[in-house]
Amino acid sequence: MSSIKNKIDKTESAEIDLGRLIGELIDHRKLIISVTSIFVLIALVYALFATPIYQSDALVQVEQKQGNAILSSLSQVLPNVQPQSAPEMALLQSRMILGKSVEDLNLQALVTPEYFPIFGEGWARLLGEKPGSISVSRFSLFGTDDDIDSIYLTVKDKEHYVITGNGYEISGKVGEQLKNKSLLLEVNEINAVEGSRFKITYMSRLRAISLLQKNFTIEEQGKDTGILSLSLVGEDPELITKILNNITTNYLMQNIDRQAAQDEKSLEFLNKQLPKVRSDLDIAEDKLNDYRRTKDSVDLTLEAKSVLDQIVNVENQLNELTFRESEISQLYTREHPTYKALMEKRKTLQDEKNKLNKKVSEMPGTQQEVLRLSRDVESGRAVYMQLLNRQQELSIANLVP
């Protein structure tokens, strides 16, 4: 009986509380509607007058390095190997690339039209009024330790303007350099009506690069695809498009210059090595011919020829690994998985070569000597042809503008 009574009391209490709540809402309906309306109005005003943020996108394909077929095969059996795009992503976000864009587009000078405070810019955008613009090619402020400082430019006509700053007022002309102890300024073009006012903000190179890095993002499209998606956000759609195009151009030009420098060094190395390799090959051929004449033209048995072919094949792969090691040593440290994989591949080939040499040691002395001399000739010839082909490739690449 007591249990039933408690349940009834709880139900009545809940009904009373709900009714009281509804009553409170009705009693304060004006306040609730007013507060809700105010927040809706604020949200609407913000949506109408807030500065829109635009995004510009671009795609970049990371080219596979020349001669990296061996590295590709190694990467297939090493799932944790760092993709080739990782260092390229770091390069794109580096100060070297972004700093070049800051210099090319004079991003240390930020030009913004002056509007009526708070609502002026949004109102002009709602009315479809396009703001005027000016083009500044050079701008520096002297005698300030701040990362950011500003001056104001007022348009007099299409060819003349007035600069006001910290305690000074200077008149300038389009196309002419304006310089005094406080500033250096050159305005290339004015597309604004008389009386238009612009704020020109100067920021240090480091701050301009940091701001660009903050708004610039890179992602790889898919795993190990080599396709990079670049995005840049900002308030000026034309400017961010221009900046992103400049970044991709600087990246591509830097890659071309870097590859050209590497090719030039490789070609210089090959030009020095080829005469020596050719000389060693001639000596090896002379030794083989002399030995055969001494032993009345001794030929290799079928078994010895088979072993010789295997040894030459292994040595060719070892030589190829040596060439590739010189390339990846410029990209990775010895602790990198790709570098370690190459070393493991070399060890496997070296073990195979040792087994073949053991077979050779079990052959008759004459066969051993002929095989050794023949191996020197075949390996030397293969190395010489590899170097010669590479020299021709690099020579042709250097001729292409």
TrEMBL record:
Residues 253-287 form a coiled coil. It is a multi-pass membrane protein. It comes from the Bacteria. The chain crosses the membrane at residues 31-49. It is an enzyme of class 2 (transferase). Pfam families: GNVR, WZC_N, Wzz. Its main location: membrane. Keywords: Cell membrane, Coiled coil, Kinase, Membrane, Transferase, Transmembrane, Transmembrane helix. Its EC number is 2.7.10.-. It is found in: Cell membrane. Residues 15-105 form the Polysaccharide chain length determinant N-terminal domain. Residues 366-398 form the Tyrosine-protein kinase G-rich domain. One of its GO terms (molecular function) is protein tyrosine kinase activity. InterPro entries: Bact_polysacc_biosynth/exp, GNVR, LPS_length_determ_N. GO terms for cellular component: plasma membrane. This is Tyrosine autokinase. It comes from Klebsiella pneumoniae subsp. pneumoniae.
